[in-house]
Amino acid sequence: MRADAPALLTESASSVWTTRLARLVPPVFTFAALAFLFIPIFVLIAYSFNASRSTVVWQGLTLDWYAAVLDDRRLRQAVMNSAFVALFAGAFSAAIGTLTALAIVRRQFPGKEMLSTALLAPIVLPEIVIAVALLVFMVALKAPLGFTSMIIGHVLVTLPFATLIMRTAAVALDPRLEEAAADLGANEWQTFLRVTLPALAPAILSAFLMAATLSFDNFVMSTFVTGVGSTTLPIYIYAQLKTGLTPQINALGTLLVIANMTVLIAVIGYQFRLRARRQRLSQ
């Protein structure tokens, strides 16, 4: 037996344990990251059933805070305002982002690179700078602040994200599909409506949902460009901090989580059905 056999065995055992630990590191960090993200949500849901007015002291179970959410007229109005602005901001961002992405990917025109860079400016610049600039512009035009200014501001903030999603989808789109449609006699408008737009539909939906989500919980831009009667949910919650938060906010958060999960499940189901349909057609 070799004299250095014990050292080789020790080195081999150390290597095995090092390999095992290396394999454990990614799952552990992943679990820790997920716990950091989701534990606060679970705590929020649990304390939405708290009978105490305190958000940190537990005194039993109750559903009164959910009833308070439904009975609070100003809270309902704030939620409706946020949903209204998010719907239009998401739709405009998805539409403009789709056309812009197709122009950048499929067309050659002067200033193309400048446009691509300018679209990323709202991501790089602090949002408060964009909000102040828009406010100064609206005041210079003597335009009233309200839903219109809010939607414009939210489009400025969400458009880069929608454009990036659509640009990725446009690059992945097979140009041979459009060429085949042109060979069959379709003009550019017919090709766009019957080929390009349906192929980009999943990406358009993703861009809309991303923009609408960012718009719904936007606070900085909304604070600067809001007007009378257009108070959104984040501004309303911030105003409630002056009088103290109650589990009513937890109940509202729980309802929003349920609504988001419902939309997410619906979108995932739509994606699966669309993929299954394409597989059946390809066969």
UniProtKB/TrEMBL annotation:
The protein's name in its UniProt record: ABC transporter permease
The organism's place on the tree of life at top rank: Bacteria
